[in-house]
Amino acid sequence: MGEQSATSNILGGRVAVVFGATGWIGRAICRDLLKAGASVVMVGRGADRLDALQRELGGGDRLLWTIADVTSQLEVDDARAAAITRFGHIDLLVVSSGVITGSAFSDGVPADWAEMIDVNLRGLLHASQTFAAPLLESADRGLSADIVLIGAVSTDVRAPRFAVFNALSAAIKQLARALRHEYGPHGMRVHIVEPGFAVDKTDQHQPGHDEQNARAVSAVTPDAIAAVVTLAAALPATANLAEVLLLPTETA
Fold first, then answer.
1. pLDDT tens profile 159-205
2. How far is CA 228 from CA 94, 122, 231, 242, in A?
3. Which residues, including other chains, have CB under 8 Å from residue 7's CB and lie 6 or more apart?
4. Are 53 and 29 in contact (CB under 8 A)?
5. Is the pTM of this model over 0.85?
6. Does the pLDDT at position 43 exceed 90?
7. Three-state secondary structure along the chain?
8. Which of 193, 194, 196, 190 is nearest to 177 (CA)?
């Protein structure tokens, strides 16, 4: 019991903001951060889903939800204000918002590409820039301060239906590396967690970006992804778990 109690408070006092909180991965991250003792601000687009998640997780005073579309700069600003008003500071940002649409490149729909660019990249830029200031303030006070970006990597680089998605994932990885060099000297860590996803070569339909299809192509569990996020945030402030490639054991 003593060991369990100590483990459950490894993030005690931390305040985390999680974008994409109601998604398959985001729910697991919120749950794991709460169990580790952090206060969590859950950010998503649907009030009903956020409210249901709050009831599921409990968390009491350590849990807050707020509505924001990551592609809207004004709504991202409002999410930052809500988090600071409630908890006074922010020292951990997790961006797990994302969509995935697959097709042969020659059959790609520009509107689908635009949505992936908006959510997976432009939205991530909004969140990272908007929350950089309060994170740096926490670092200035000698506290741990972290940005965790949830990327993706295909377990089959020859996958023909995910060229645009994979290109955006590469851009996110490069952004994480650049931000790590920019913010590291100021005491803020930037991590990227890249879960693999497997392509079912017998499945010729376009997977789209809904939750069931996301589960169909995911190669690792959301609990495993969440555990890595918590581990990265719990490390001593002088250590940065910079890049994590997360693959299932049998295919790694």
1. 568 888 888 999 999 999 999 999 999 999 999 999 987 654 433 33
2. 12, 24, 5, 11
3. 36
4. no
5. yes
6. yes
7. CHHHHHHCCCCCCCEEEEECCCCHHHHHHHHHHHHCCCEEEEEECCHHHHHHHHHHHCCHHHEEEEECCCCCHHHHHHHHHHHHHHHCCCCEEEECCCCCCCCCHHHCCHHHHHHHHHHHHHHHHHHHHHHHHHHHHHHHCCCCCEEEEECCEECCCCCCCCHHHHHHHHHHHHHHHHHHHHHHHHCCEEEEEEEEECCCCCCCCCCCCCHHHHHHHECCCHHHHHHHHHHHHHCCCCCCCCEEEECCCCCC
8. 190
Between CA 76 and CA 19 the distance in angstroms is 9
Is beta strand 39-44 parallel, antiparallel or unpaired with respect to 63-67? parallel
Give the residue among 148, 167, 155 at the shortest CA–CA distance from 217: 155
Which has the closest alpha carbon to 151: 231, 228, 74? Answer: 228
Indicate whether 33 pLDDT > 70.
yes
Average pLDDT, the chain: 87
Measured CA to CA, the distance from residue 149 to residue 128 in angstroms comes to 9
Spelled out in words, what is the top-level CATH class assigned to the domain 2-246?
A: alpha beta
d(CA 95, CA 147): 8
Q: Which two tokens stand for residue 231?
A: 């581990």
Whether the Cβ atoms of residue 169 and residue 176 lie closer than 8 Å to each other: no
Q: Could you tell me the two tokens for 24?
A: 């398959």
